[in-house]
Amino acid sequence: MPKFIVQGGRKLQGTVKISGSKNAVLPIICASLLAEDKTTLTNVPDIADVHSMLKIVESLGAKVNFENDTVEIIPGKLKKNAIPDELINRMRASILIIGPLIPLLGEVKMPFPGGCVLGKRSVDTHTYAFKKLGCKIIEEKKYIHITSKKLKGTKIILPELSVTATENAIMAAVLAEGETEIRLAAAEPHVQDLCIFLQKMGAKIEGIGTNNIKIKGVKKLKGAKHSITGDYLEAGTFAIAAVGTKGDVKITGIDPGHLDSFWQKLEEMGVKFTLGKDYAHIHPYSGNLQPVTSLKTAVYPSFATDLQAPFTVLLTQAKGVSKVFETLFEGRLSYLFELEKMGAHIEFLNAHQALIIGKSKLKGSLISSCDIRAGAAMVVAALIAEGETEISNIRYIDRGYEKLEDKFNALGASIKRIQPKD
């Protein structure tokens, strides 16, 4: 498997353009199947998960063309139960294909989805929403089988604020008969982007960006042109790396408003930055970063779980004690063992909480990526550290970040991708 060799201790300087959001483009690719004609998507990140999702829609019979940052999708006549198990097992987001296929084909049978191993991530909220819309669910040992003769609008109060369950319910409801109300809906920027795309296709959706979404079903949807929103999670990662290396970096192609909780935590640490309409500028600093009383993850607009790992790396550079509380996923603090190898001082309180005691002098080491966001955190740690760091298992990083090493190298970093010898 490929790996990164990182020479740490270099200040990052310059401007970086953020790619389109992974978490937005994956459901939008699925939703494009709902159209009767061609959809054109721009600002699409060239990452492994996008290629996997495009292969999924191709396996169903859609025609796909991906060139530069533009994807064209023509749905055509779709086939039932045609997705290879191997594609489903690659990523958890493959579950998003159910939402459009139920109204289009009336049946989906697929393995339980794969992806990053982050504790117990069940599909119960998804199946609950589909049942409310009139589906029948059969869960076998390794497969889930969903059927529906006709979807009917209803009130759905989701058991939890699940992003992908919200997206699946929305995609199924836009062609359902009557009105659907989804309460306790997730409101993340990528959920909003999906809704905006569906509106361009002709869907009738109200309450975008709130926890109460109302949908009036329509009989058909047309193809649309849409630019994928900038990836606020990637933007946060670059901001953290800039602070950690005492750099001077302008981050473009984003909506800074998607990161309000993140900026508040940087302010708490004493970081200086400027926010514009579509950019953020991290200014260099001298002196000590301040610890944060509590870095607690929660659903949007609170602090994003996907930025917890990179931000915790930054907390190792603060003088004092910070508390990290991961409320959403089990096992998401496992990357801290890798940070300890680099010299971080960490006290584990339980599976969800830890104390970060700084300031720690990180040193290059042999470390591994255990999921997409932890992989980005390891890169940030390596950039901050003194000496050389080798990061293995970077396939996770390639799933979520477009040309990450190239973007960092353009800012003055030294990251080499080493391919395995045949």
What key attributes describe this structure?
single chain, 14 helices, 422 residues, UDP-n-acetylglucosamine1-carboxyvinyl-transferase, Chain
Short note summarizing the structure:
The chain is 31% helix and 24% strand. The chain is built from 14 helices and 23 strands.
Q: Average pLDDT across residues?
A: 95
What number of structural domains do the residues give? 2
The helix fraction, in percent, is 25-40%
CATH names the topology of the largest domain as: UDP-n-acetylglucosamine1-carboxyvinyl-transferase, Chain
Summing up helix and strand content along with how strands pair, one would put the structural category as alpha+beta
CATH class of the largest domain: Alpha Beta
- Rg, Å, rounded: 21 Å
By DSSP (H or I, 4+ residues per run), the number of helices equals 14
What is the end-to-end distance? Answer: 10 Å
Unreliable spans: 115-121
Q: Can you name the CATH architecture of the largest domain?
A: Alpha-beta prism
- Quick one: overall form? globular
Biggest sheet, spatial arrangement of strands: 21-22-1-23
What is the number of beta strands? Answer: 23
> Can you summarize the main beta sheet?
4 strands, mixed
CATH superfamily of the largest domain: Enolpyruvate transferase domain
Note the beta-strand portion. 15-25%
